[in-house]
Target: adenine phosphoribosyltransferase
Amino acid sequence: FHAQCSSCLQSPRMDLCHVPATREKGWYLALMAPNVKGPNYAWLDPSRLYCHPQAFQDCVADLLQPFQGDAIDMVAGIDAMGFILGSAAAATLRKGFLAIRKAGHLCVQTAAQPYSDYSGREKVMEVRTDAISPGEVVPLWGRLPVWYPGTHPQPLPPPGLCILLVDQWVETGGTMRAAIELVERLGGVVAAPLCVPAGVAAICIENSEGGKWIQERYKCSHCVPPRLQPRFDQHQ
Model:
């Protein structure tokens, strides 16, 4: 894998027809292109693997595998690269797709959330308010009504939509955490004890402070094999 990774990253062109005989999880990571423009850019460009048809399909399949059988009502992708993986995941799951946009692009009523991205720049994301709201899905079977002695039983309010949040990469975790807060503020469920959780998916979730915070609290999926995680954490 390491030899394949080195040769692919150094190659200026990519063979879109080549598929390895053994497609282990993460084989397509070798197709990502390195940063050649300096520190103002991300250290890798994952979008190169989207050009390879089998790599793209396998990447999406690997991201969704941990969520097989989970109750996912909608997929949300984060502007902009999360739109690619998110829409592909939504199409695979046959679910709707919600775009979480950078502020200033939606002409409808929105909710906004400030955040700091991986470079430390202060930004604002927004999402339309009519796509996520509590009470849009039927309560899970087996949930008991709320009841106190001397009162009539009251049914529990139904949970919000279960949302699978998708982005290309989680480095510091600031962008994804803001998206989680935004979705949950509108009544969506990213993870909750009374609901089957959806979760968070990205090609890589780094073991940064923010990345660990997300992984400790939400069901997560990414494509980096454990043996390669330290290299990705150190941007090597």
Notes: The longest helix spans residues 53-64. The two ends are 15 Å apart (CA to CA). The chain has a mean pLDDT of 83.
